[in-house]
Amino acid sequence: MSRFTHIPYVVLIAALSAVILIPAGCDRETPAPIIAVESLQLNSGQRSASKSSISAEASGLGAETPSSAIKPHFVKQIDWSEKGIWVKTDTHIHTTFSDGSNSVEDVVLKAKSFGCDVIAITDHADRNLKAATPEYLEAIEASRRQHSEMIILAGLEWNIPPWGGDEHATVLVSPDVDEWKTLSVFKSRFDDLGLMKHKAELAEEALRWLDANAVKKGVKPVVIYNHPSRKNDSSMETVKHVLAWRKINDLVIGFEGAPGHQGNKAIGSYKRKVKTVDRWDPVVATVGDGWDTLLGKGIDVWAARADSDFHNNRPSDLNDFWPGQFSETWLYVPKRSPNAVLQAFRAGSFFGAHGHIARQVELTVEAEGLARRAYPGEAIALPAGKSITVRVKCVVPAKDWRGQPNRVDVVELIAINKDSASIIAKKSLSSDGIVQFDSMEVPKGGLVLRARGRRILSDAPHLLFCTNPIRIQTDN
Ligand SMILES: [Zn+2]
Ligand SMILES: [Zn+2]
Predict the structure, then answer these.
(1) How far is the CA of 319 from the centre of ligand 2 (A)?
(2) CA neighbours within 13 Å on the CB side: how many for 365?
(3) Is the pTM value of this prediction over 0.85?
(4) Which CATH superfamily hosts domain 85-348?
(5) Centroid of ligand 2 to alpha carbon of 157 (angstroms)
(6) 330-352 pLDDT, tens per residue?
(7) CA 191 / ligand 2 centre spacing (Å)
């Protein structure tokens, strides 16, 4: 039996001819998969040849398992798959309660006019600012009463210890907890800005405190690492941060893959060493970077989130897009409720997009014997060698965010295993918004699949949509 027996055909072809597979215009900022594969070697420390990097044997996972040992089944299932609804969200917004220029009601009205169903007010938790004060919650409550059709979450942008004001995370809590008490105690005890001593343990304590004090009816708070590489020397630094937090508990669900401040000259306000790639943080945009590394390690974190980080829309200043104007995170929720939104974030049931290029994006994996298709956030177990059908389906609206004719030029399928990550296929959408990739076999050791769509622009960064991953295991 050839050592390549378990390698899916398309994976093998992709590895051997990765450069050929990159169409003109797609490699402007994104390194070719071979380079990406090299970046993942940082974590394996074992491999030497890129060709063997995608070999199932190279993963070294477990002994030979007879194919018959595993019946296709769901390992992690989202209860509302195929029966939920899509809602448009922006959960990173500032107001005059911190350094934003507009009131809560102003941003709610604008978000509504740009089609948001859900927003979160997430002012900075700096102790000298007014987030998490009684007035903050009163203003949010007033907008909730005024716009009962919208879901308006109360949150904070946390200065994460031990980095003073350099690293941020969105903290969202259920309205079923005492929001004022929870957020104000969190701010006073755990915000790192202005502290005399900066200790990583304080972040760990904060996550434990949230778990003990802000879980209601089984709904946990959601913490998301914002603009993750903005102040790092390398986007790979984010991996150790997430690993440290996930050792404490699962409250940190992932990254803000596409930062806000998309109207800035330095996109995302990425003014230091690391720059955005096609408007996304390289942790997501560079195949094999931080996100894929975590996924390859078996850590399910989600990064398909694109927000406004709205502060002000003055052209002479930050020039931010309003919530929903350019960046969108679409959540697939079981119902229209604040807790359902938190559950969908936690489940990974969402995608992010720029420029309104796509709606209802669904990456699915289908296999004979599986009760239904699997969707992002879910995990399935299949015997090695099992054939799977991978599909991306979406609605491409007639008009984009500027009211111009819309299009998605190419959809890319990204495969990740313990040692490597690469783009394994690229295809155009059919006229009915479907891409069906060539069927492939599941390699021993399994793989994780994620997808993204791209509008290629010659004179500007591309516009992308990005899905969360589906995990395929071949062992239990
Ligand atoms: Zn921030
Ligand atoms: Zn912010």
Answers:
(1) 14
(2) 33
(3) yes
(4) Metal-dependent hydrolases (3.20.20.140)
(5) 6
(6) 999 999 999 999 999 999 999 99
(7) 14
